[in-house]
Design brief:
Elements lengths: L1 H24 L6 E5 L6 H17 L3 E5 L6 H9 L6 E6 H10 L11 E17 L7 H11 L5 E3 L5 H13 L5 E3 L3 H9 L5 E5 H9 L3 E6 L25 E9 L4 H15 L2 H9 L12 H22 L5
Bound molecules: aspartic acid (ASP).
The site of aspartic acid (ASP) has 15 residues, from helix 2, helix 6 and helix 7.
Length: about 325
């Protein structure tokens, strides 16, 4: 009996395996959906669309963008987890949704390291502090002085509690010792509209979204939160030059798919991401808008997983020191 069943089972197993391999090798068999956790036209959306367009050429299937906005961007991660595991849905998560949210949000419904398949880091982006055009502050020091006097009434726009614009200004506030209530938007695209319209006082935002407005002088950009000035906006002083040296932060976007996606699908998605990041024309475009290309190691699934773990470890004490939690 045994002798008869064994070859049959082995045959079935081999058949199932080869069917699985064939399906994965044909991946993708239909359009890819790219979930963007924030509003169209914002920093994550702009970079996601550029990358998605290039990936669609490598993969031979359209990449359809879906702005799955909600819960400061964490809804998109929940959507990915609850959906199909065939690798046809990908997500652009970021510093907020996949690092800062862990310590900020005790009800976060996923674990960024364990609950997703990691595809690769997409880009990093510098953060700038920006005020409305007619704001009394013309320098970061003047903004600090103004905030100390006006923290009870100041309006800080952000993209939801736990978003990058929220957490980076939170760090700024904790460094200078103020507490300011924020005004949440569905992304920094609409937040920036209101800064340009003079409806809010200030916004910490990524270079991708900031530079066009700064150049058009529709807002005032007071500092970049890092040690070097950026080619993107070379006249903007660093936070060190502007007198707040402890305010330094880099933010990033990263690509994920379902935890149980077939390994061959993950490999193809990663190959398409790396093809996009290493394409000279796209690279030039990304650099032009201030998005920086990650290292070769960070562009791999293992590199991203290790990076996310290190980012969670980096943000946890910052959030704890600021004493903020979403309840
Ligand atoms: N990255 C978000 C966006 O694309 C904004 C944020 O996290 O601050 O709008």
């Amino acid at each position: 009996m045994r002798l008869q069943i064994r070859p049959l089972l082995a045959g079935l197993a081999a058949l199932a395996l080869s069917a699985g391999i064939a399906a994965a090798q044909n991946f993708p068999t239909k359009p890819i959906t790219m979930l963007i956790p924030f509003a169209a036209g914002g920093p994550t959306d702009v970079v996601g669309r550029l990358i998605g367009e290039h990936m669609s050429r490598t993969l031979g299937q359209p990449v359809i963008i879906e702005n799955a906005v909600g819960a400061a961007g964490t809804l998109a991660g929940q959507r990915l987890m609850a959906g199909a595991s065939d690798g046809h849905t990908i997500l652009i998560g970021h510093t907020g949704t996949h690092a800062a949210a862990v310590s900020l949000n005790p009800n976060l419904r996923y674990r960024p390291v364990e609950d997703f398949a990691h595809i690769g880091l997409v880009n990093t982006n510098p953060i700038f502090v920006n005020v409305r055009k007619d704001h009394p502050a013309n320098t970061l020091r003047e903004l600090v002085t103004w905030l100390k006097a006006n923290q009870a009434t100041a309006n800080n726009a952000h993209a939801g509690v736990g978003s990058v614009s929220h957490t980076t200004c939170l760090l700024f506030h904790s460094v200078i010792g103020v507490k300011v209530a924020g005004i949440p938007y569905r992304g920094t695209a609409p937040a920036m509209n209101d800064l340009v319209g003079g409806k809010v006082d200030y916004l910490c935002d990524q270079g991708v979204n900031v530079a066009p407005q700064t150049r058009a002088a529709t807002i005032k950009t007071l500092a970049i939160a890092q040690d070097q000035r950026a080619a993107l906006l070379p006249d903007v002083p660093t936070s060190t030059e502007a007198g707040v040296p402890d305010f330094k932060v880099i933010v990033w976007n990263a690509m994920f798919t379902h935890k149980d996606a077939p390994p061959a699908a993950i490999e193809k998605l990663n190959g398409a991401l790396r093809a996009a990041l290493n394409d000279a024309t796209l690279k030039a475009k990304l650099t032009e808008i201030g998005a920086e290309i990650p290292t070769a190691e960070q562009q791999t699934p293992n590199g991203l997983r290790a990076f996310i773990a290190s980012e969670i470890a980096r943000w946890t004490p910052i959030i704890q020191a600021a004493g903020v939690r979403i309840e």
